[in-house]
TrEMBL record, chain A:
Keyword Iron recorded: no
Provenance organism: Phytoactinopolyspora alkaliphila
CDD domains, sorted: EcfT
Subcellular localization: Membrane
Protein name, as recorded: Energy-coupling factor transporter transmembrane protein EcfT
Pfam name, any one: CbiQ
From TrEMBL, chain B:
Membrane topology label: Multi-pass membrane protein
Database matches in InterPro entries: BioY (IPR003784)
Taxonomy, superkingdom: Bacteria
Native organism: Phytoactinopolyspora alkaliphila
GO cellular component labels: plasma membrane
Protein's UniProt name: Biotin transporter
Keywords: Cell membrane, Membrane, Transmembrane, Transmembrane helix, Transport
DNA damage is among the record's keywords: no
Amino acid sequence: MLTGAYVARSSVLHRLPAGVKLLTLAVACVALLAVREPWSVGVASAGTVVLYALGGIRWVEAWAQIRPLRWFVLVILVVQVLVTDWTTAVSLTSRLVVAVALAGLVTLTTRTADLMAAMERGLSPLRRLGVDPARVSLVMSLAIRSVPVVAGIAQQVRDAQRARGQERNVKAFAVPLVVGVLRYADTLGEALQARGMDD
Amino acid sequence: MTNDSAAARPRRLPAADLARVAVFAALIAVLGLPGSFSLFGNSVPITLQTLGVLLTGAILGAWRAALTVLLFLALVAAGLPLLAGGRGGLGVFAGPSVGYLVGFVLAAFVVGWIVERGGVRPGAHWVLTAGLLGSAVILLIGIPVQSLVTGVPLGTTIKLSLVFLPGDAIKSVAAAVVVTGVQRAYPDAAPAARRARLAIR
C-alpha cells in the first residue's frame, strides 16, 4: 500500500491540526525570504533543529527530507563562493535547506489523510466557482487507488515485452501501457456513471 | 447536496472525465517510478515522468490534463512519494524544483491545447510539435525559478540545464510515437475524437 513519509510519534507537533501547520509553514517560508544576515540565518537554522527535536524526528528521517538537495547545495556553494563570498554562500544555502527542512517537518508530522482533508477544506471557498469538495476527495482517493493498478498494468506489459525480447523498446512498452490505462479509466468512469455520479 | 453545489452543477466534471483524471494522475506517478537517475551537478532527476505529463496532455486535452497534473501535485504535497526518485511531501515545493512542477501543469495544458486542434487523428508531427513546446514551457518556468530559489545566476543555471535538452527532445519524439500508436488502437484517446463521439450521443 502507498504510504507517505509520515512518522508516527506522539509529539506536540504531531498533535497540532494540519491546517495550523500548513499556515505556519507558509508564513515561515515568506519570512525566510527576508532573512539575509548570517546571524538571522543561524537563528532560523537553530530554530529548525529545535523543532525537529520537538517532533521527536530521528536523524535518518530528517536526512531523508533534505537529501534531494545535496547536489544543489554543492553547486550553489561553489557558484556563490565564486561570484560573492563565503558568508553569502553559506547563508543562501542554509536558507534553502531550512525552507525545505521545515516543509519536510510538516510532512513528517502530519498524516497524508489529514493533509488531504486540510487541502479539501482549503478548496471549499472555491465552491462558488463550481468546485465540489466531495468530488475532489473522491478523485484523490481514486488516484491513490489507481497507482497500484497502473503499476500492475505496467508490470504485465513489461513481462510481455520481455517474453518477446523487446525490453528496450519505449513504444512497445508505452503504447500497451497507455491503452490499458485508458481502458481501465473508461471502465471506472462507466462504473461511476452506473452509480449515479452524473445524476 | 447543498444549494451551492446545485448552482454549480453545469461546471461539474462528468464521471467519465473524473475517472480519466484520477487514473492519469496515477500514470504520471508510475512513470516516475523506474530508473530515475540524477546527473552530477544538477539534482533535478531525469525520468519518464515528463513523458507522462506530455502523454496526459495529448490524450486528455488542455483542461483535463492540467487538472490531472494538479491532482498529481496535490498527492505529492500530501506526502505521497510519487515524484521521480520517490520524492514527495511539501519539501519539494520549497525546493529548487518547484518551477518545473508548476511548468508541468502549464505544459500539460499547452500540449493538450495544441493536440485538441489537430483533429480526430492528429499526426505524429503535430504531437511532436506540441511535445517540444510543452517541454520548452517546463524549462521556461523551471530554470528561472531554480535560479531564483538557489541564487545561482540565470546564465549558469541555463548552462547546467543544457543536459536536459537531449532527454526532452527524445521524450517529445517518444510522446509523438506513443500517442499516435495509442490513438490508432483506441480512437477515444484523441481529445477531438472523443468530443465528437460524445456530442453525437
